[in-house]
Amino acid sequence: MTNTYKPHGRYDYCTDIPALIFGMKDQNLTLFHDFECEVDVECGLSRDGFDLAARVTDVLVDGVSLKNGDALAKAIRLKVMEIADAELEAGGALWDQVREVEGLSLSGHPGDPDAHWQQAW
């Protein structure tokens, strides 16, 4: 295994790809199990620290973006972005990676209107 440089904001990610990418209605049918890729995540913090936004901007396999691939690659890219964005929103494992690398911590309780995000830089 070779070590490759990973730009800041790029994270290892693994998910199942449902057959929904082909328009099939059965959400239980999995097309690819444990699809391994990398996702580029853009993270922004407002000046006052009350608003934090994180979203997936690209999906890569072996360092190559799927946005330049064929129709299947593009469909996989969009589905992975959708799944990963939902995980970021829910605070899953991907969010934990982003929060750690970006040096983000929440000051206060999540439901508290005075709670705000801080970045350790």
Oligomer: single chain
Helix content: 10-25%
Note poorly predicted spans: 1-6
Give a count of the beta strands, DSSP E runs of length 2 or more. 6
Give the strand line-up of the largest sheet. Answer: 1-2-3-4
Largest sheet: 4 strands, antiparallel
Overall pLDDT: 79
Q: Strand pairing plus helix content: what structural class?
A: alpha+beta
- What is the beta-strand fraction? 35-45%
Organism: Devosia honganensis
Protein name: DUF1488 family protein
Question: How would you portray this structure in words?
Answer:
This protein has helices at 71-90, 93-102, and strands at residues 10-18, 30-45, 52-61, 64-65, 104-107, 116-119. The protein is elongated and about 45 Å long. The chain has a 4-stranded antiparallel beta sheet with strand order 1-2-3-4. The chain has a two-stranded antiparallel sheet with strand order 5-6. The longest helix is centred in the middle third of the chain and has 20 residues, at 71-90. 25% of the residues lie in helices and 37% in strands.
